[in-house]
Amino acid sequence: MLYYLDHRERDNLRMLKRSNLNKIGWKEKDLEELLVKNLDRILDEETLMPIFTERSFQEEPDIMALDHTGKLYIFELKRWKSNEENLLQVFRYGQIYGQKNYEDLEKLFLKFNPNSNSLVEEHREYFKLANEEWINKEQFNHQQHFLIVTDGTDIKTRNAVNYWKKTGLNIDSIVYRVFVTDSNEQLIEFNAYSPFQDVIEMEQSNFILNTNYKNNPHSHDEMMNEEKAAAYYHPWKNKIKRIQKGDKVFLYQSGKGIVAMGIGTGEVHMKEYQGKSDEEYYMRLEDFNKLKHPLSAKKMKDVTDSNFMFNQTLFSVDKKKSDLIWKYIKDNHL
């Protein structure tokens, strides 16, 4: 639940008015577009790799993703109140796509990602799998897991999910809630999903940003010289909007490690990139420091006792880990 904090009545919790997408004029496709274009907000990108989103007029799940073992995650968005057919449709998708082999999944993946390498290559790169962790084509889609994205007021669907989960079916729900404020602002609340954690309660406000050196060394040099964090093209450029004023930002160069760090200003700017208007989003960084020598990925793991997926454009790091990295850099790399 969301409540107002009233500085005049500090002993009173007044709840925001609950609503739903239908009441505020959103169509079914609107929610799907919102979530598809912000997958990194509903998925834990360290553990799930999106491979496909629904095409119009096709009997397909809304979103599909893989984990590092090749298990297939099937997402279905329930925009409004459920009916008896809702979960039956989801199970039908499971029946259809549970029988897909590697070649079938790769065809779907390449329709969604036409400029990518093979699915097996992209999967290895995405999860940074060591040679002994590689999976072969036969291991893709060895198991399926259903994820139902549903309105918090949709008790029928939530109860049905809980029932099937008790029977041993791999199924979970991601609940969203819609609110309207006194000034008629419309808010939506939902939690990210990770296969290792039912809900991620709060997005962390410290980030590691890849400098795009692998794709364009000039982008890396510009970030370092202009003391900024930047990302390019949709949907990756939108990730810069996640950085708020005061957030710690570490710049990571592929193959090297962290090469610089600074504090977000909270102001997002747009500029031309490779001849295309507004395809770079960037933010100036305060208290900017270039490292004398990079902090390697291995050393970061040693310092924080954690693993990181560095192939992402931008990912969040919790306060404890970011403070450890920040202090280690201050003590050893400046």
Automatic annotation (TrEMBL):
Residues 237-325 form the EVE domain. Transmembrane segments: none annotated. It comes from the Bacteria. GO terms for molecular function: nucleic acid binding. It holds the Pfam family EVE. SUPFAM superfamilies: PUA domain-like. InterPro entries: EVE_domain (IPR002740), PUA-like_sf (IPR015947), tRNA_endonuc-like_dom_sf (IPR011856). This is EVE domain-containing protein. It comes from Halobacillus halophilus (strain ATCC 35676 / DSM 2266 / JCM 20832 / KCTC 3685 / LMG 17431 / NBRC 102448 / NCIMB 2269) (Sporosarcina halophila).
